[in-house]
Amino acid sequence: MKVEDRTIEQIFIYDTTLRDGAQAEGIHFSVGDKIRIARKLDEFGISYIEGGWPSSNPKDSQFFWEAQKIPWRTAKVVAFGSTCRPEVEEPAKDAQLAALLEAATPAVAIFGKSSLSHVREVLRTTPERNLQMIASSIAYLKSHQREVIYDAEHFFDGYKEEPAYALETLRVAAEAGADWIVLCDTNGGSLPTEVGRVTREVAKVIRVPLGIHTHNDGELAVANALAAVEAGATQIQGTINGYGERTGNCNLISVIANLQLKMGKKVIDPERLATLRELSLFVDEVANQRPNPRAPFVGSCAFAHKGGTHVNALRKLLRSYEHINPEAVGNRRRILVGELSGRANIAWKAKELGLEMEDRSPKTKRILEEIKRLEARGYEFEAAEASLELLMRRVLGNYQPFFRLLEYHVSIRSLPVRAYEVCEATVKIEVQGKRRYTVAEGDGPVHALDNALRAALQEAYPQIERIRLTDYKVRIVDPSRGTEASIRVLVESSDGTARWTTVAASTNIVEASWLALVDSIEFYLLRSGGSREMDPEKARD
Amino acid sequence: MKVEDRTIEQIFIYDTTLRDGAQAEGIHFSVGDKIRIARKLDEFGISYIEGGWPSSNPKDSQFFWEAQKIPWRTAKVVAFGSTCRPEVEEPAKDAQLAALLEAATPAVAIFGKSSLSHVREVLRTTPERNLQMIASSIAYLKSHQREVIYDAEHFFDGYKEEPAYALETLRVAAEAGADWIVLCDTNGGSLPTEVGRVTREVAKVIRVPLGIHTHNDGELAVANALAAVEAGATQIQGTINGYGERTGNCNLISVIANLQLKMGKKVIDPERLATLRELSLFVDEVANQRPNPRAPFVGSCAFAHKGGTHVNALRKLLRSYEHINPEAVGNRRRILVGELSGRANIAWKAKELGLEMEDRSPKTKRILEEIKRLEARGYEFEAAEASLELLMRRVLGNYQPFFRLLEYHVSIRSLPVRAYEVCEATVKIEVQGKRRYTVAEGDGPVHALDNALRAALQEAYPQIERIRLTDYKVRIVDPSRGTEASIRVLVESSDGTARWTTVAASTNIVEASWLALVDSIEFYLLRSGGSREMDPEKARD
Description:
Two copies of one chain form a homodimer. Chain A is globular and about 80 Å long. By secondary structure, chain A is an alpha/beta fold. An eight-stranded parallel barrel of chain A has the order 1-2-3-4-5-6-7-8, surrounded by eight helices. Chain A has two domains: 15-268, Aldolase class I (TIM Barrel); 404-538, Alpha-isopropylmalate synthase LeuA, regulatory domain (Double Stranded RNA Binding Domain). The first copy, chain A, is built from 19 helices and 16 strands. The longest helix of chain A has 19 residues, at 509-527. Chains A and B meet through helix 4, helix 9, helix 10, strand 9 and helix 13 of A and helix 4, helix 9, helix 10, strand 9 and helix 13 of B. Strand 11 (404-415) of chain A pairs antiparallel with strand 11 (404-415) of chain B, so a sheet runs across the interface.
């Protein structure tokens, strides 16, 4: 996708989940999280992925290093930073701009000041020097063959304060060669009509394609972004699920659906749009955020009907209380009486896994029932396809477990006065007809169990040595019940090449972790052909 | 407040939390809840309070009965229903309209159909009969001296389908004497520019004051309501915190703040507006909903600042990253202390907590060092202000712990073949000079420890019975190390009024949970003055 391909209908989505989204309270991404999200965004068809601010911390630099090795499908990875500092003689001597170039991305975004009071009181420099900083920084980055996105910070506030100066900052950015000029409502306080009017005025004098960056402080981030598009902007910056500092950034989930389904813009392939809900849940899962059931378009309540009148009317006129077809965004209608099942989804999933199964088969029904039973206990299979595959194989009856648990016991003792702390697990299993009884210590109960289980399996399945747990996430399922509530554990594992995720839930965190661990090992043994060593006739179904 | 007092600047707020809000999944109000919320809304200065649909259930009828006994300050209580049924000869014979009159409210709201396809396929009557139903129902209610609010259901969809008919329904409503005509975006799928344009066209031909009723299916409910106000509507219908079917109704909290602080409209007395956050939290509390920390204007994150750049700029220019003064809506600025923080943040935080400390004092340095030491082990304080306060008090040296742990032991045993699972904890502590040794079972190790610790503390601090764990979050800190990695636990607790969050990290999840639990209890004892019972000289510093 080249910038030159832009037409009036195409709107470019610029995702800043990994940078502005990570400013949200309670959100922390590891480098691995960032890579997983970026790959998902690329697969979905996002145009620009802002990965971080390379000079701000080593984690962001590492992300860009790893990103260089990935063959991106459609996305351009973007490094974020600011114009050079006021005291720097020339951009080539600015360490922060140097870090932007070292990130070796096809595009860079830098922000500069649009507001006179910010120039004077925050930057503590002159209006003229600010213009030079903008122009020279952009020109410098352009001279290194980067696509340059110029973010005009506090643009709407600056424009209200002193329109001529705010416009002048854009003019110098355009002249210096910026490929995009992005109008930022940094404090999130603007109204849609203001954003529309100001964007229209900018579009009259600035020939460079315009973008819009909004925040949700007035609960208007999505509306403000759409108002800018109506006024001529062709790039929208935001985050998945609206993560971001304070009340969050513009929610790209709602923006994408509105642009494509309501405003007739070209944003994402329609078949990708049908994975919008999956994308939203995936990012929540990686960010360890509880999905918002009332999220527009993708929330579990978004097409749930409770009122008797509504349900009645729905039976008579399908669209009577639905603004779009839920399937267009991968969601589904939920009616509290006689909930509709997802047989088609299961059949589709089975096909993906190479399991023979039809929509109408009783097996599909049994799988659905098992999923519903486990989900009621706190399981959640959206982000745990390995556990879903094992569940399907178990229900289909052609699955042979690799070992059988007879007993485990965990003991955790802490005597702070003697600085003594020990965690020990014993595991008794039956594997290939033999009983194994092992004991191991660990840093915590799950680690101790993991060590003991591996010791017990080592002889029968030496390949398990390759498995590493790469992530471990725990979430309470019904938070109103405190420590008595069900606890969901997600375990991500890798053998150095593949990665897979398993899930389990229990009121006991150790039990849930154990079940997810066992699934992870079983899945690996299944994939690595472990069953053949055990019983050649039962080899891969 | 009389309808005749309306001027161009006054916007009337119509709350339907008790009716449309109660359609939300997971929201159930008792009659007592409804009365409490209604009184709070009245005290706040809401103009109309829709109490329910009297004929739909006995609970709503009882609400109206009790409402008659209350001396309302400014609000008019409204009973909600629909036009008469198609098959009824005359409105006087319609049971549902009779129930509306029996509710004995000063105002009634009835909805009618604006969309031809709804008339034909849902009501299953003729367009002409629908017009008669609207006219005769309104005339009947007017003849009983009610203020009549006519809700034009599916108005925007109906207008897009057949504008002449949709307008005709409004015309007959106006002629029949409706005091208000409310344009409803029932399916929540309209865009702000559409709502503005259609409302403007309606205002050209309908002389009756207009209202707007929106839903959040496109994440545009607030923007749509504001667009209607800009086009001439003077009543906004919505719910507190945006509760409602599917994705919810228009959030009145954001509407009120935007109208008054941004658009210069007269809505609520400014001193009442400063209780907006309190109103939001009160309704969440009664509805048993967890407050949304990212809620615009009133959420705990709405004025929280994390990025180092932002905090620096804030010190230089107070408004640099804030769209309004947080105090105008009863909220406050929060500086998050985390990886990016420096001394300035700590000093700011200490001041917020009422602890005397200067930027340059050696105490500030010691606190920062302790924060960094713990963060390197996996702690994270930005979302755990209670632990941060305890840390600061501990470092400052004026803190006396409420008890001392000597030993704990947790045992978890699982024998799946016998369906046997047990989790048991023993705790040995020293409290008020005595040793306590208790044992308890639990659903999991943390629950068992919690039970044992509470049993040990019960006698010395009976107030701990009030503490409930309201959330429990676990996150692995360095996922590249798998189960050996450090595990961070966040515990949120409440005593029914206040909420506080504590944090701890360890490679052992049970140890981390234990430490966070202990912090939570210590914080509560500190705040509830527990230390005085223990040692009067060491009372609150």
